[in-house]
Amino acid sequence: MTQTKEYLASVMAEVEQRNPGEAVFHQAVQEVLSTLAPALEAHPEYIDAEIVRRIVEPERMVMFRVPWVDDNGKVQVNRGFRCQYNSAIGPYKGGIRLDPSVNASVIKFLGFEQIFKNALTSLPMGGGKGGSDFNPKGKSEGEIMRFCQSFMNELFRHIGPDTDVPAGDKGTGSREIGYMFGQYKKLTNEWTGVLTGKAIFSGGSLARTQATGYGLCYFVNEMLASKGTTFEGKTVVVSGSGNVAVYAAEKATTLGAKVVAMCDRGGFIYDAKGIDLDLVKEIKFVKRGNLSEYVEAHTDAKYAEGPHGIWTVKCDIALPCATENELNLEDAKELIKNGCMLIAEGANMPTTPDAIEAIKEAGLLYAPGKASNAGGVATSGLEMSQNSLRLSWSFDEVDEKLHGIMVNIYKAASETAEQYGKPGDLVLGANIAGFTKVANAMLWQGVC
Ligand code: NDP
Known about the structure:
The chain is 48% helix and 16% strand. The model has no long low-confidence stretch (mean pLDDT 97). The chain is built from 18 helices and twelve strands. It has 448 residues and is an alpha/beta fold. Residues 168-171, 212, 240-245, 263-266, 284, 307, 321-323, 326, 346-348, 373, 376 line the site of NADPH dihydro-nicotinamide-adenine-dinucleotide phosphate.
C-alpha cells in the first residue's frame, strides 16, 4: 500500500507542477487520488497502463476570446473555455458556467469531477465542462443574447451531438441555453440535441429543471433509509437559491421535511415556519432579485447579511447547493455542535477537505456531490436519448428514471465502499466506482 500511495503522490506532484497556482483544480484531483490506492492495489494493470497519469490530463482544453457589444455601444471582451476532459465512455458532457470567478482552474476542477459523476450515472457520457468569466448579473436581455451568440461563434466548432454536449450550470439557465442553441443552429444549419437543458417546446426534457435538486433528495432518502429513517419531520437547511437549491428544497418539503433557511451571495433567510418557496422562485427566477426581499412579505422571518451564517442555523440535514468551498471547517463544527446528522452536496465541491474530515470523524452521514448531485447530468443524458429517438417522455416517466438512477448511484457508492473495507465512506465508494468504469474503458481502448 505504501508504494501505491507514493505512486499516487508522485502523480499529484506532477499535476501541481504542470498546473501551477490552480488551487481548486489541485483540490479536486487530490480528493480523488487520496481514495484510489485500494483500487490500484486490486488492479495493478491500471498502474502498468498509467491510467491515473492519463486520467488527470484533459484530452483537450480550448480557451477563446468572446467579444460582444454592450448596450452603450462599448466593446466588451470575456474569456471562454471548454475542457474536453475524458471521452472513454461517451461524448464529453458537462455544463457551461457563467460567473466572474471562472478561470482555467475552475473549469478543470469541474471537468475532472464530471468524469466520475457521469460514469456513476451508468449512461454513456464522458466528462467535460466549459464557461466564461462573463457575469450575467445586471445585464440586459440584449447583452445576454449578444454574449451567448459570440460565445457560440467559437464553441460551435468544438461540439456536436456525438462529440461534446454542453448544458447549463451556475449562471446558465434555459434563457442562455436558448440563445446558444439558436446560434449553433444558425451556424451549422442543423437541429440536433447538441445542448441539454433546452426549453420543453424546443427538444428539452421534462423534469430536467428539477433533476439535480430532486435527485439530491432521492439520494439523501437512501442515506436516511440506511439508518432506518426518512425526511419526515426533519429540519433542513439548503444553501443557495438557484436551480439546484430551490428544487432540492421543494422535494425535501414534499417528502415531509421543513426547510428553514436558504441563502444567496448577499445573505441568508431564516423562516421558522418553513421557507415559502413560491416567493423564493418569484424573487430569484422571475425578478432576478435578492433574497433580502423575502422579509418584506414575511415580516416574522429573518434576513442576515453574508451567506456563511446559514451554517449556524440548527438543522438535522444540511444541503450545500450554492458553490465550491462554501462550507468550511468552522461551519462544519457549527453543524456538528448543533446536532446535524447528514450533509449531502448539491453543489460541486462545496465542502472544504478539512471540513469533510471533521464531518466524517464526528460520524455524520456525508455524500460527495459527484454522487449526490448527479441527477442533473443523468437527466441531461435522458434528454439526449429523447432527442436521438425523436420522442419525449412524460414528467413522471423521466422522474421515475431519475429516481432509479439515484438509487443505483447510492448502491454503487455504498457497495464499493463496503467491498474496499470502508463501509459508509461514500467518498471512497463513489470515486472508486466511477474511476473503475472509466479505467476499464481506457484499458480496453489502448493508449490513446
Ligand atoms: P444558480 O446560478 O442557479 O444558483 C447558484 C446559487 O448559489 C444562487 O442563489 C447564488 O446566489 C448562490 N451563490 C453563488 N455563489 C455564491 C457564494 N459565493 N456564496 C453564497 N451563495 C452563492 O446555479 P445552480 O443552482 O445551477 O448551481 C449551484 C451549484 O450546483 C454549482 O456548484 C453547480 O456547479 C452545481 N451543479 C449544478 C447542476 C445543475 O443542474 N444546475 C448540476 C450539478 C451540479 P445569487 O443568486 O446571489 O447569485
